[in-house]
Design brief:
Length: about 120
């Protein structure tokens, strides 16, 4: 029924590569100002970011495996700065792209994985 929701991250990237679909630059690794919080790497890109006491931005080469509402998506350390490199990295990874979706770990009843299990999509 909703077959796209059953695609793996690799399926999506291979399709993007094959069809030459333009993608958002946040998916490519680049040095960015980030803060590490709760096991996540958070992007500090404008005045919306609220620092906790003692936090200072650091520059790290990161990319985003998934994008969601700011600032609920964490980055991952990566050197994959081209589409071919992202595909290669994705084919070699064993962790889900959802590991950087903070909303999936906030205990909220609205987490996307919970909704998927309940048949929402």
């Amino acid at each position: 029924m909703f077959s796209l929701s059953n695609w793996t991250e690799a399926d999506v990237w291979l399709y993007i590569q094959r069809e030459r679909i333009p993608i958002v630059p946040l998916y490519f690794a680049k040095e960015r100002p980030v803060v590490k919080r709760g096991g996540q790497i958070l992007l500090v890109d404008d005045e919306r970011f609220r620092f906790l006491p003692g936090e200072e931005p650091q520059r790290e080469k990161v990319r985003f495996r998934t994008l969601g509402c700011y600032p609920h998506t964490g980055g991952v350390r990566s050197e994959a700065d081209t589409l071919d490199a992202v595909v290669a990295e994705t084919l070699g990874t064993v962790s889900s792209e959802r590991t950087s979706r903070i909303i999936d770990y906030d205990g909220a009843s609205a987490s996307m994985e919970k909704r998927k299990r309940e048949g929402y999509f």
